[in-house]
What we know:
By secondary structure, the chain is of the alpha/beta class. It is built from 14 helices and 24 strands.
Amino acid sequence: xxxxxxxxxxxxxxxxxxxxxxxxxxxxxxxxxxxxxxxxxxxxxxxxxxxxxxxxxxxxxxxxxxxxxxxxxxxxxxxxxxxxxxxxxxxxxxxxxxxxxxxxxxxxxxxxxxxxxxxxxxxxxxxxxxxxxxxxxxxxxxxxxxxxxxxxxxxxxxxxxxxxxxxxxxxxxxxxxxxxxxxxxxxxxxxxxxxxxxxxxxxxxxxxxxxxxxxxxxxxxxxxxxxxxxxxxxxxxxxxxxxxxxxxxxxxxxxxxxxxxxxxxxxxxxxxxxxxxxxxxxxxxxxxxxxxxxxxxxxxxxxxxxxxxxxxxxxxxxxxxxxxxxxxxxxxxxxxxxxxxxxxxxxxxxxxxxxxxxxxxxxxxxxxxxxxxxxxxxxxxxxxxxxxxxxxxxxxxxxxxxxxxxxxxxxxxxxxxxxxxxxxxxxxxxxxxxxxxxxxxxxxxxxxxxxxxxxxxxxxxxxxxxxxxxxxxxxxxxxxxxxxxxxxxxxxxxxxxxxxxxxxxxxxxxxxxxxxxxxxxxxxxxxxxxx
Length: 531
């Protein structure tokens, strides 16, 4: 296969222009090109008056070696096409079907891979099916009535269902699991462009249909997904898992348990600690959400011309503050909404969400600061959970149960805002003017202010006085890591910690990839399950 890198074209080009450019680079007639495939597409906006798409293209044509030699171009090379391969089944007998706790990305992708290879997994999800869950979340945003087991954090699809649905990851991928994740998303309903665009996203509305079809596939292949089924305990025998216990006091036997519990399963963390499952606290990040007009972000990133072909612009920003802490943007949502993402009563957390079209008037992003066990203590593996809860309780009280919001100029002055400026809030959930700077620890507020001022030098208007802040963003990643060995198994035999909640992922794609890794580990060890 011939790979062409760094192929540049104007943003308004058509397919014929792309084919012609390929032929020109390879110095061949265009009719000799049998087929080509876009491997990667990114935007080069360094020159605002000359924005281009940059491509990597795989080309199929005869006499490839001769074509490459004749092209004499460092960006033209021969590549070997790699495909993902699931391992063959192991030899150890599996007396009961594998149980997966959690139907987020890690649990669903683990479940699909096991189901397609004959293991008939049982997935236990504490929340509701995605259709009912959306109704429940909409009601919560409208009247503030929280269901602790079904909300923005819990339910079919996990926390990622109510997000921007970003699918980019920094995880190295020599085994092609990233590609497999994207291919599965496309198979279950995502736009094929996610296979090659540089920063793919799906959107909360499209994700809902995808996770539902994944669940239907698991059921079709002999697996099972149960909703409103919270696991409350674990029965261990001689250092091995033997049963999981649900809130209905049902004891489900299993020798293979996947913990894809999500980063907000604080009650489950407590039970696991009580049962002696090894875990440790780890660093994570907390901060706020900031909103700007999407138009101003577009202008800064792409220039004053309206480039409708490019869609809403995003950004990724980092800064090291004077106290040594890193401040960075996270989960930036072009044309999105700030949402109430709480999962515990009398506590409040926020997140960002976009629909597939990203058509909202505002851009929003988390601005977060890393915190470590030095900040929240090392009393035990759940000390980070206590730190999160303290901040979320303060946010709840500050906003009288509603999302606390504050203009940036008032955040710097530590005073409650009286009215909005020219930025109108784009929020899902009730909100209230409050002093976010009044409940954040001073080292966080100081770092955030320095970061926002520094970001203004990169994106003009980022530090505008009427930018809207909302808090607290506390669920960026899991505050714990559930220990596992090189075969992905806990010291408690048969238990496989998995995904973001277990501390091994940081987003939809990496969680899904980790789910696939764990499915591979189980399949490599065990025979297919048969009744």
